[in-house]
Amino acid sequence: MVLLEADKVSRSFRIGDQSSLALSEHTLSVQAGEFLVLTGPSGSGKSTLLNVLSGLDRPSLGEVRYRGRSLADMTQQEIARLRNSSFGFIFQTPHLLPDRTVIENVELPFHYGCPRSFSEIRRRCLQLLEYVGMAPLTSRYPDTLSGGEMQRVVFARALACNPEVIFADEPTGSLDAENSCKILELLKKQTANNCSVIMATHDPGGIFYGTRVVRLEKLHANV
Amino acid sequence: MTFYPLFFDIQDAWRNLFRRPLRSLLSGLGIGIGVAALIAMLSLTEGAKRAAFEKFSSLGLQTLRLEAIASQSEKGESTMNLSQGIIQEDAVQLAEWLGMRGKIGVFIKKEGVRISAGNKEVKATVLGVNAGWFAAEGLSTTRGRLLYEGDIAHQENYCVVGSALAANLQVEVLSTIRMENHVATVVGVAARKGRLLTEGTGLSSVDFDNIVIMPLTSMPFPRVVADRLLLDGLVVSLEQAHESSVQFLAEQIRQILLDSHRQVEDFHVVVPLTLLREAEDSQKVFSLIMGAIAALSLLVGGIGVMNIMLANIAEQTREIGLRMAVGASQARIISLYLCHSILLTMTGAIWGGVVGVLVALLIQQFAGLPVVFSSFSLLVAPSFAVITGIIFGLHPARRAATLEPALALRDS
Ligand SMILES: Nc1ncnc2c1ncn2[C@@H]1O[C@H](COP(=O)(O)OP(=O)(O)OP(=O)(O)O)[C@@H](O)[C@H]1O
Ligand SMILES: [Mg+2]
Fold first, then answer.
1. What is the ipTM of this complex?
2. Is the pTM of this model over 0.80?
């Protein structure tokens, strides 16, 4: 089943009075349960494509459809709800709230989604932290964690609301081989639950995990 | 819509304050000063208002007071061809004219008279009054009785004594007191009433608790000019309490007296109600000036808060991107940063409130001005702070909410 499609999406950025094209008429569809790896040289538009697919950014041309519905037709509120309940995000540098503990960071998506009982949220988040091997550190603050630990917390947060698609932008970019392996294994496991993973990476080891690899080429088009 | 998200945003904003505690504290400074000024100003004007009200209501807001201008008749100049001051006939004429519209009390006053009973002696004021005076002043007795028409007509040597005086001399009803070389029998002890607060009105003061009240006719120290008994003053208590009718009657009474005094203004009319209004008017100017100062500092404080909020948001761009990525809608981002700026202004308001109260108390202590804290003033200041927080927090909050999530996340 096609979950997410990009139909001839282009994205150009204005820099001064010039406009530079980061992504040109890219067409792509993502199946449920697929592990799609986006690869290509630096600056080839991998991050840009991920942002456009996940609704963090809007394409300059073309459209992105989630379950057949164009993101362009959704209100800002609907896209926020979609990101909250259907998408999970992992970035190259782990983004965590500095003044919230590990468990509170994992709980964050619940506070922006449908209200649920506090005990239910706690139970779910503890489970997830256990799952990513962070159970002993639940009440630590992010600045006391290592990069690999932070990335695992981010991973737990991405899984919090049972997403249908996980967007991972170089999730292993700042990790050593062992930690990279753990994260990639965890990502791979998600696809078994019919969750799609879209990962941008340079890492040749990462490419090996994908069920499908899409290679982007660097554009030199200045329009 | 439940309150839960709002609670979460408040909690988030609260923690945010402590990321840079000094910055948070300083940004509340302007608001704090504004609130302090507002509370001090409101408490001072409220105190002044209360004091003015107490003063003028002790004189009776339904009362007109007329007093002879003492100097003229005491200079010993010939006033025969002009006027003699207020005389008994004036009172009679006014009483007839006034009819059912009010009561007239007249009095003669002698201050500093040595009063003795048994072996005790004190100095007090002696008033000679007519029977209507008690009703006009609203004075009653706790023991014994008042003086009646009959006592006045028969020139009885009876008197009513003030409560403090009675206690000092240890006199009771039917005791005898001596005023210099005059003797009178106590028929009543007056209820406590305190003194007339006449400062600044031009009236002479009377301490009702420390007087001897006698019939006008048996008053031992009369001043008689050309067979006419000179009065020291009149107290007119009106049935009508309406402001315009009080003022109208006061003017009428003045005209009548002027006519019978050959246009010589040898008396003084005081309308406490009018004085109260004048005092209120002058306070309004003061309030306006203080209000403008408070508003200005709130404005400056608000701009300070806006500035700090813009700096906070610039610093937290990536975090805002993160919140958006995990599903925060624009409304929630606005809510978060509005809560933040409201908390900033509220912390300013809280310490500003404390400082305001302290300043007001210090003013009371050292400048001797009366201060009254009303719940209104203590509520108004914090609500102004909240309103300022909303007004000046709105722009930064909207700016945060309209960030592009992809760009915000790229921020380093
Ligand atoms: N906000 C932006 N403003 C201007 N140009 C941008 C912006 N974002 C991306 N670009 C440009 O778009 C192109 C693609 O960038 P993108 O980040 O998608 O590359 P990438 O494939 O993710 O590279 P990397 O592997 O280094 O992360 C680059 O040339 C970049 O300069
Ligand atoms: Mg990238």
1. 0.93
2. no
